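Q: Predict the bound structure with PPE.
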Amino acid sequence: MLTPTEKIWHNGRFIRWDEATIHVLSHVVSYGSSVFEGIRCYSTPAGPAIFRLREHVRRMIDSAKIYRMENVGFTADRLAEAMLELVRVNKMDACYIRPIVLRGYGEVGVNPLKNPIDVYIACWEWGQYLGEEALAEGVDVCVSSWTRLAPNTLPALAKAGANYMNSQLIKMEALANGYSEGIALDAAGYVSEGSGENIFVVRDGKIHTPPVGASVLPGITRDAILTLARDLGIPLVETIVPREMLYIADEVFFSGTAAEITPIRSVDRIPVGKGRRGPVAEKLQKEFFGIVNGAKPDRHSWLSPVHAAA
Ligand code: PPE
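A: Predicted complex:
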């Protein structure tokens, strides 16, 4: 269950958690008109630090632009500063930050343009996305009967609330059948992504991940893995991945802000490799967690410290 924090940021000021309510006839409720982000703040020896803050803010502004939300009303710098302030105001250490840009209350009807745009930013403590043991043990997943967003329907590069109706179908079906998560194929039948994660497949020491044209969200953790693989000298290609690659892979793993780097130990009840976390996922986890927890140097400037250096 969600544990409330003290404050939520709304259009430039802090309001109480319980005050952050919207009218039921707000445009977003009927028509799904929101874009949002999910960002993690990690605990480091130098205090809390937000992971890839600029990149998340940029993707949110990109998402808003795709949906013609021109007047988000705040610059990227202002939004980034608001998130740092929010973590400070709520006296949080490690937490998850959820900025949401939504079309609010005013008119009813598909045309969204006359409704105000509201920006909210909340944060709270969020633990392991796919269960306590997931990072070390891996998870059991299925290939979904639902297809990911087809090109030229809902834009996959936008992180829009409405996209998550498709994610919910994938997730609920997986849970109903006893899996932790579902992997969706794209409209051409190639591997796309999980309901809330990007996916990577390893065979013969080389990592494959679906390209941005395969209906995936351009994940910021995905991008971090591309960088870390290069740093570690692990070959990686962005390429079309046929479904059956999942079954014959040595390793498969998810990436995401919430899921971080989660190994997959079986797909459709077929064990992946040795049926547990593999060496490539483990190496990437070590590097990733080393950086975000402040144990290894932040060589790519991925962390924004919440408190000014003493
Ligand atoms: N694909 C989808 C569909 C997705 O929702 C996410 C993030 C990713 C890929 C990975 O992107 P990134 O976080 O930038 O590495 N999913 C977010 C939502 C989770 C939720 O249940 O809410 C997240 O991980 O924060």
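A: The pocket of PPE is lined by residues 38, 167, 193, 196-198, 217, 219-222, 255-259 (CB under 6 Å).
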